[in-house]
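One thing: could you explain this record?
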Amino acid sequence: MSKKITPLRLIPAGKGYIWGGERLKTEYNKTLDVTPLAESWECSVHPDGMSVISGGIYDGMTLKEVLDQNPAFLGEKSKDLPILVKFIDAARDLSIQVHPDDDYARKNDGDNGKTEFWYVLDAEKDSELIYGFEHPMDRDRIKKAIEDGNLENMLHHIPVHKGDVFFVRPGTVHAIGKGIVLVEVQESSNLTYRLYDYDRVDKDGNKRPLHFDKAVDVLDMDPVRIIRQPQRMVRYYFGCAREILCRCEYFEVERIQVTKGFSFSVLDQSFQVLLCIDGNGGLETDETNRPVRFEKGTCLFLPADLGRCHIIGECTLLKIRC
């Protein structure tokens, strides 16, 4: 194994969308000079916001530059980093929106589609999100609802609580409501088609653009069933508890609560990503002289073929792999 294969601590790219707040700074140790801080793109090679390496021989390089120089870090399964991992702080409601699938996105916008998964870190009392239509819809009904200002009445409003999970397929109309902080794991994409944005204006007095035609092209017009939280199985081991939160064709997300220690391996098939969502600790490998320290809010990229890893400390992690 090359001595260069070590965990990479990432500095995120920040996004100052108008609906963001300050909780990523005050609660998740983000020092980005962005106000409000709506999103921090923790693990990203997307040109709209790239992660940067902190420390080690790659210090100051973007994650994309490192992966371009070391394609083996992605493993045998991937030629490009297929995912984007972010924190989201919704101090205000997000726009009512939809994402395209891969075929439509690549044909019309030259980007990937956007399948996404949400893990709710915190939600204020009475917080909710929008997920799917309540009734069968068509283009004309949607257009009239937007013009009349009552599109929200056509949509499912779902109460949200800390620890909830949601899987959002392309074509599903949705919106994250105010008071919610969550982790999003998605395809590496930045395509959002806005249907409605509450007639808000930015700091310069301009409304954000809407994308009605593209949105209705990709929308699933059928009503969704009542959304219930999926059954989840927690497996307990000496030193940790583990549960699979999501598994789809693009990624797998596992939550790990470490109390004494946790060991796993990163093989040559694929990389892995660790996101610390609570507590602090360290990551030991056969190639590191001392643990790589992390705390709440830290994201680590683990190159393929890193080998055996051991977590110390008391912390809660999301482990993502493709």
About this structure: The chain has two domains: 12-52+67-218, 235-321. The radius of gyration is 20 Å.
